[in-house]
Specification:
alpha/beta, two-stranded antiparallel sheet, 33% helix, elongated
Length: 78
């Protein structure tokens, strides 16, 4: 069983919701107690800079899913 903490980096048109960066900080604390890593998931188009920011805010690894159809992906209407 993995002790990693996965954090969804919610973005729309390249703009990340600030709560995502705060969540990475909390995930860092949780992963330290669990002995795992913080893994960020970024969906979108051309989200390389968002992935770099995720590392700056505490992600050990970043998973990217890039496609034009993901650029405006939202779990719920904004």
């Amino acid at each position: 069983m993995s002790n990693n903490v996965l954090v969804w980096i919610d973005q729309n048109n390249g703009h990340v919701d600030s709560i995502a960066w705060e969540t990475l900080g909390v995930a860092r604390q949780l992963s330290a107690g669990l002995g795992g890593q913080v893994v960020a998931l970024v969906l979108g188009e051309a989200v390389g800079s968002q992935a770099e920011h995720a590392v700056q805010y505490g992600a050990d690894r970043v998973l990217l899913a890039t496609a034009p159809t993901l650029n405006q992906f939202r779990l719920e209407p904004s």
